[in-house]
Write a structure and sequence with these properties.
This protein has 3 helices and 10 strands. The strands form 2 sheets. The protein has an 8-stranded antiparallel sheet. The protein has a two-stranded antiparallel ribbon with strand order 8-9. The relative contact order is 0.25. The chain has helices spanning 2-16, 41-52, 147-153; strands spanning 21-26, 29-35, 59-65, 69-76, 102-105, 118-121, 139-145, 158-161, 164-168, 174-181. A hairpin with a 3-residue loop joins β3 (59-65) and β4. With 182 residues, it is an alpha+beta fold. The chain is globular. Keywords: Isomerase, Rotamase, Signal. One of its GO terms (biological process) is protein folding. Its EC number is 5.2.1.8. Residues 1-18 form the signal peptide.
């Protein structure tokens, strides 16, 4: 009876923080991210707007740095910059760290400039975390399935083109992105 109660509590504890899941199909394979609405409600709502409007489909991971991260969602296959909604508030102080397999909002030097671009950390990137002296980058979820697909991105050769560096030689394209659970 005690084992059953402990198992039930463990199941409840893990599902309390479970948020929507989004499946991301790429030309390298599929991965799934689980979003944290509790700690990053603004970032999750923003990300889901782009998922729901379908505008991540046929976008590319345009910046891939081995041992660091893969960034995408902002450019079409032909490097045309994709339209954005208004920038959002930086939620980097939410207690979620830029650990391996987490997904975070990309931004400019302005902490409150994130729109549609996101990145996935290949490794723990503590220097991207919020602190009193660093506005940080807002983590809003984690890859829960298919992290090996994400890691493949970091093994692809890159080049400089169109004023950008670390661009995969063979484009890594998002072929489908959809919410698979609420």
């Amino acid at each position: 009876m005690l084992k059953t109660a402990i198992a039930t509590l463990a199941l409840v504890a893990t599902s309390v923080f479970a948020g929507p899941k989004v499946a991301v199909d790429t030309n390298l394979g599929r991965f799934v991210v689980e979003l944290n609405q509790e700690k990053a409600p603004v970032s999750v709502e923003n990300f889901l707007k782009y998922v729901d409007d379908g505008s991540y489909v046929n976008s590319q991971f345009h910046r891939v740095i081995p041992g660091f991260m893969a960034q995408g969602g902002g450019f079409a296959k032909d490097f045309k910059r994709l339209p954005t909604y208004a920038p959002i508030e930086n939620e980097a102080s939410n207690g979620l760290d830029n650990d391996a397999a987490t997904i975070a909002m990309a931004r400019t030097r302005d902490p409150n400039s994130a729109t549609r671009q996101f990145f996935i950390n290949f490794v723990d990137n503590d220097f991207l975390n919020y602190s009193v002296t660093n506005p940080g980058y807002a983590v809003f979820g984690k890859v829960v399935e298919g992290f090996d697909v994400v890691q493949k991105m970091g093994q692809k050769p890159t080049r400089s083109t169109r004023g950008m560096s670390d661009v995969p030689l063979d484009p890594i394209i998002i072929t489908k992105m959809e919410k698979i659970s609420d």
